[in-house]
Design goal:
With 268 residues, the protein is of the alpha/beta class. It has one domain (3-266): Rossmann fold. It is 40% helix and 23% strand. The protein contains 10 helices and 7 strands. The chain has helices at 13-35, 52-61, 73-82, 120-130, 150-162, 171-174, 180-189, 209-213, 222-229, 232-245, and strands spanning 42-46, 65-70, 88-92, 105-111, 131-142, 193-206, 254-266. It has a 7-stranded mixed β-sheet, with helices on both faces. Strand 1 (42-46), helix 2 (52-61) and strand 2 form a beta-alpha-beta unit. The chain starts with 12 loop residues before the first helix and ends with a strand. Residues 1-11 have low confidence and may be disordered.
C-alpha cells in the first residue's frame, strides 16, 4: 500500500455516511439540477459509495434504469439498504475497467470518486466508452486545493501543527488536480467535448463539537484513518487542539461550508 493512501478505509458504510455521506447527499441534487436531463434515461453511477447520488437520481430524474458501481462491498450493502428500487442494480466494479458494453448508457456520472482512482484518464476513457453518442458525462470532486471542505481543512491544519509528518496525507497535497483547470484538462485528455464547469457549495453544520469530532474517530476515509492510527495520547492532543481552534456559533453549533467542483461533457 502506498504511503499516501495507507490511512484510507472504505468498507464501513455507516461510518462514511457520518463523515462525508451526509454532506454529499446535499450536493447530489444540486448537480442533477445543473445537468437538467429528461426522464426515462439509462444511467450509470461510478463510485456510488453509500448511494447519495444514486438516491438523488431516482428521486429527481425518474431513470429508466440505473447501474451503480463501487469497489467496496461494505458501501454497496449500505447503498442497497438505502435504495431498494427495482430499476437500480448495485454491483462491485472498477472505474478503470467498467463491466458494461460500449455505448450502453445515456448518462454516466461519478461523484467524489475520481481522486481515489489510480488512472483517472483511463477512468474518463471508460466513461466515454460506455456513453452513447450525444450522451452526458458528469463528475465532481471536493475542492481540496482551495480548502473547500472547511471541516476537513480544520482537521488537517490542527493535525499537521502537532505532527508535521501528516502534511503528505492531506487531500490538497494528494489531489492537486481537483481544480477547475485540472478537471477540465482531465476531460480533454479523454477526448470529451462541449465542456461546462460549475461549483456547488453547501453548508456543513455540526450541532456541537462531539458531532464534529466523532466521525474522525470511526476510520472511514483518509482523515479518520489517520485519526484512529494515532496513539490515544496523540489523539487526545489532536482533539484538544481542534476544540481550541473551532469556535461554535451562538447556537452552540459549528458552522462550516463544503464546495464541490463539477464538469459536464458530451460524448461525441
Amino acid at each position: 500500500m502506498a504511503q499516501t493512501d495507507r490511512h484510507d478505509a472504505w468498507q464501513a458504510g455507516d461510518s462514511y455516511d457520518l463523515y462525508m455521506g451526509r454532506w454529499s447527499r446535499q450536493v447530489a441534487p444540486r448537480l442533477l439540477d445543473w445537468l437538467n436531463l429528461p426522464a426515462g434515461l439509462d444511467w450509470l453511477d461510478i463510485g456510488c459509495g453509500t448511494g447519495a447520488l444514486s438516491t438523488a437520481i431516482v428521486a429527481r430524474c425518474n431513470p429508466k434504469s440505473l447501474v451503480s458501481l463501487d469497489p467496496s462491498e461494505g458501501f454497496l450493502s449500505r447503498a442497497r439498504a438505502n435504495l431498494p428500487d427495482p430499476r437500480v442494480t448495485f454491483e462491485v466494479g472498477d472505474a478503470q475497467a467498467l463491466p458494461l458494453g460500449d455505448a450502453s448508457k445515456d448518462v454516466v456520472v461519478s461523484a467524489l470518486t475520481l481522486n481515489f482512482v489510480a488512472d483517472r484518464t483511463q477512468a474518463l476513457s471508460e466513461m466515454k466508452r460506455v456513453a452513447r453518442v450525444g450522451g452526458t458525462i458528469g463528475y465532481y470532486v471536493w475542492d481540496y486545493p482551495g480548502g473547500g471542505v472547511e471541516f476537513m481543512h480544520a482537521f488537517w491544519r490542527a493535525a499537521t501543527a502537532l505532527d508535521p509528518g501528516a502534511t503528505d496525507l492531506t487531500e490538497d497535497r494528494r489531489f492537486p488536480f481537483c481544480t477547475r483547470e485540472g478537471l477540465i484538462e482531465l476531460a480533454r485528455s479523454a477526448g470529451l467535448v462541449s465542456l461546462d464547469f460549475t461549483s456547488i457549495e453547501v453548508a456543513t453544520v455540526f450541532r456541537d463539537f462531539e458531532d464534529y469530532w466523532r466521525p474522525f474517530t470511526l476510520g472511514a476515509g483518509p482523515a479518520p484513518g489517520y485519526c484512529v492510527s494515532l496513539a490515544p495520547e496523540a489523539r487526545q492532543r489532536l482533539k484538544q487542539k481542534l476544540q481550541e481552534d473551532l469556535t461554535p456559533g451562538a447556537d452552540g453549533a459549528i458552522h462550516c461550508k463544503a464546495r464541490a467542483l463539477a464538469v459536464r461533457a458530451t460524448r461525441a
